């Protein structure tokens, strides 16, 4: 039944999208539509057909309490540790958003991490994306797999529509769409909002192309739809890169239009932007408001943008760029053996595309030029090429962006230029077949040279020579077969048949190369019940934490526990400034608690603390529950969510406020508030109690005989 529900939601959502595309964008033959619908099954077929979970769940079992269930759930060694954010951040974010929506609340606030954080404003939960709402029809484990499949389908569809728009045949368009949807970039980021934001990029190109050509409202509507798909994807940085790349294409298209149409197209494009901003203001304005108050924005604006050198020396930039041709140059992609400096994917989308790209570059299509320009900029950004990387970093907003992620422009350029090349082969097999065969052989020789340079360098690649040769075989064999097919096409003049075989060959290669990146796990391994946590009452104003690396945030959301730890891309700066008082801030990860007796943790309302096996709880603490997965202990010094401190000090300087807080051993006795410096002030006589507590609401009952300060964390 679970399988049927999952397939029904996927085919319903994807089929509905196809019908909309046929109605409002361009016709799609049923054969092509069927192939697009089934495309995600290349990587996610097992998960879709078993209602499994297409996610790196094995990572969540690295630490307790889930480590205690590793054997029972059939979890083996980690397959790809670099995807930890998927299980520690992205899925828990989705849980927090669903919990709010399913209980009739606007998903504005995430109470499950960092003592409460914005939810809508962070964007990553993708609250307004259609797949989030469609996923409510499924359990979260199946909903996640549905989202992964739909993102891939959307990338396939958008690329196919664009390539058909520029005149490619059906087969070449399917091949180009395959290259885009199964590029290393989109495969690696399948579980991240980057893929959701980047996948519709070709649809935006299509909308802008029609604006430049037709300058009508229909084209404007299509552009708005594409922009909204990008905005609701949940990654503002990728949105910036998508709009910048699409802008280059638009300028090329405008150059071909007459002056009157050019002016009208510019006006409609501006109107599309304004309309999109208006429709998405409910999402963008909270983000902008919250972002300016975060540690990450402050760091990027005041240090990263000013003091960081964004380029590498030329020799190192050239070495980095080799990953666009040999994706395993710095580690085995998808198996966790990668050099930490090169974790993120480059523009690679299959070696079979490379000779087709060469053929596409020789075409007379004007559309190749914006692809060349944006593709080179994307690859140069990822390679941190001097001049390009530094120049981009001087532009507004790009100065605080991780612009190497613009490499998706290179991935799309590879896919689209390859489609142009195979389109030439289909139309002119006799003349282009020999050229393609020659290009394929030349590519094999180039890859052989690059691969030979990697032999005997396990410190760089993390692989032995046998593993390197195996990877080379996966890259070279399809090229050899492709060379034969090109020769066959030239002799028999069977371009369409050859294109079909090349598509099958590309699908096989990408399955071998990209298949290991994500694993599929059975549904009951999706954050299983932890009996220990059943002893912690829900729906009450008490928070929890864990000691060391146990119960890694933000998994607390999966169990609806309010953890004071956490990590995301937007950390409230005043809270971050208190971290030295109660935790250890781990760069690009969570704030680890080593000492649960910190007075500030008591102030933060931490009543329950989880200890993994082998960690003792402090003397005098009550043991609430204990089993093989660890223990829960109760903090005897915990303060209520709201209380009346007996005294407090006013301090106007933020730095001095933290210093004063560090000196406090009992926050029930003393507190610090913002205001003009003054001696310690006796608080007014009052008492406070929690009258009602809900997910986004705290009602207090206050009885005060005089003016009093109420403290709350």
Structure keywords:
single chain, 713 residues, alpha+beta, 51% helix, globular
Describe this structure in words.
By secondary structure, this protein is of the alpha+beta class. Helices cover 51% and strands 9% of the residues. The strands form seven sheets. Strands 5-8-10-9 form a four-stranded mixed sheet. A three-stranded mixed sheet has the order 13-12-14. The protein has a two-stranded antiparallel sheet with strand order 1-4. The mean pLDDT is 93.
Strand content: 5-15%
Stretches where pLDDT falls below 50 for ≥5 residues?
none
General shape = globular
How many helical stretches?
A: 28
Q: In what order do the strands lie side by side in the largest sheet?
A: 5-8-10-9
Q: Span from first to last CA?
A: 45 Å
Q: How many strand elements?
A: 17
What is the CA-atom radius of gyration, in angstroms?
28 Å
Derived structural class: alpha+beta
Largest sheet: 4 strands, mixed
What share of the residues lie within helices?
40-55%
Averaged pLDDT, please? 93
